[in-house]
Amino acid sequence: MRPHWRINEQGQVERSFGGDTWQIVLGGASPKIRVLSMAGGEVWAGGEETRVYRSADNGNTWTAIVLPQKNATDHVIVHIHFDPPQQIRIEAADGTCWLSSDGGATWN
User: Fold this and answer.
1) Has residue 12 been placed in a domain?
2) In the chain, what is the straight-line distance between the N-terminal and C-terminal CA atoms, in Å?
């Protein structure tokens, strides 16, 4: 069964495999999450303090993605777009964006 995803009121990522039971899979001390995006079997989450996380295993484990610093400030991530599977565009609320053409290995 494919998981369902949501962001709770505290800005934590939750997952459900059906029914009304939701499990926090990315929470704790991390900054508030503002956006979730799925591509194939991957889940990406972004939020405050220029934070982006990726899970390749339906939320069992997460990897923090380090984006290059831009404008010497933290950004709030609000969009994560996928074109062909290897091209990713991440956008902040202030219009700042990062691009990757290799599935997120490198960014500009």
Assistant:
1) no
2) 36
